[in-house]
Amino acid sequence: MNTPAISELFSLPPDVKKIEHVDDTKAKHAAKFVMHLEDHTAGNLLRYSLLRNENVKFSGYRRPHPLENKIELKVHTNGKISPKEAAKQACDNLCTEFIKMKEAFLMQVKEFKGEGK
Amino acid sequence: MTDQYGRGLRAPVIEILDIGRYTIKFLLKECHISIANALRRIMIADVPTMAIDLVYINDNSSVLHDEFLSHRLGLIPFKSDTVDSYEFFRECSCKPSCHKCSVEFNLRETALDDVKDITTDHINANNPDCLVKPVKYINADGNEEDPILIVKLAKNQKVDIQCIVRKGTGKEHAKWSPVATVQVQQMPQIDISPSLEEDLDTEEKIGLVNSCPASVYKLNAEKQTVDIETITDCHQCQECTIYLENLNKKNDLLKVGQHEDHFIFTVESTGALPPEEIVSKAFTILIDKMSELSQCTEESDAKD
């Protein structure tokens, strides 16, 4: 009855941006990023990656509603970098990490198969 | 912020334990649980494969009704090695369907004299050169297994079905998921105190070895020590610590726990993609996802 359309899982309405950046009105150096079409996969990854940054005082994410395909990521920094910079760094760090992991994995597979023959 | 998350970049280590025709087992070390979980979630829900998505039923006099039959057809795994050369149907510019986003199959069978089994062998591609086709399973001996049974027809019953196979992901429907299961297990960790050697006599040591239902321990008869034989079999049932407790020994002789950042992955493919391919595709998807998020964060404008 009120099942969301499957297309909502994959595409955004034309006037909506993938990531909305909302500055916190009550605290300095704090912001909320609303990430559309993302779920716990990216949310938990980014939260953890942000916490590894020494300039980040707080980071957490939530998925406001199970039928809405978006997450909210909150970031609070110490002022040396902006929350936006911190979030971008977190994404970039994860990206490099996954590239390394993929290379390592492919190499291991090659080695394993070489041994088998 | 506490230091429990560490600082800077990490370099997870991967070690392959086994690669089979349909399964892969590997270790992921020095890696936070969020990364292990992301990898698991991506493999289940985001690696694309091909599956029957649209079914036209021209004739069906079998005992199964149309919806039942369509559902069974949808769940058949299709060989998807060429999945990257296809477009997602919703992203393809064609009007109803085209060869870039869909593959057509047909299933036309009649039982003429006796009961007839309709299996995946009866699904024929309209284009015989097509590389996308129902999976044929090969068992451990290297022989082909029986094809998947779709429906049984009694005498004079008939099915005439046209199927459209499309690319999709497990996020939309589980039939597109390339894996049966992805198992992520935290690596067990057993610390045996050096004083155990002196504190227990031989009988007690044998009792300790036998107390483990997973046969993790082994008694080294020469040195009179208890060794760990197969740590991966340990399921932390604590039977060994309970045994030592009942002996009224000091309780720090043996400690059974788990590594926080050390995981054992077992990926079971449905046969649609080779298991190592699923993992490497999952990494590619994660890399793309992160670079897209990085780009979009950069472009997002602050507003109050």
Describe this structure in words.
The complex is a heterodimer of chains A (117) and B (304). Chain A contains 2 helices and 4 strands. In chain A, strands 1-2-4-3 form a 4-stranded antiparallel β-sheet, covered by helices on one side. In chain A, helix 1 packs across helix 2. The relative contact order of chain A is 0.15. In chain B, helix 4 runs antiparallel to helix 5. With 304 residues, chain B is an alpha+beta fold. In chain B, a hairpin with a 3-residue loop joins strand 1 and strand 2. The longest helix of chain B is centred in the last third of the chain and has 25 residues. Chain B folds into 2 domains: 120 residues, Gyrase A, domain 2 (2-Layer Sandwich), CATH 3.30.1360.10; 124 residues, RNA Polymerase Alpha Subunit, Chain A, domain 2 (Beta Complex), CATH 2.170.120.12. Classes of the chains: A alpha+beta (117), B alpha+beta (304).
Describe the main β-sheet of chain A briefly.
Answer: 4 strands, antiparallel
Tally of individual domains of chain B? 2
Question: Which class best fits the helix and strand makeup of chain A?
Answer: alpha+beta
Order of strands across the widest beta sheet of chain B?
1-2-12-9
Organism (chain B): Euplotes crassus
GO cellular component, one term (chain B): RNA polymerase II, core complex
Pfam family, one (chain B): RNA_pol_A_bac
Protein name (chain B): DNA-directed RNA polymerase RpoA/D/Rpb3-type domain-containing protein
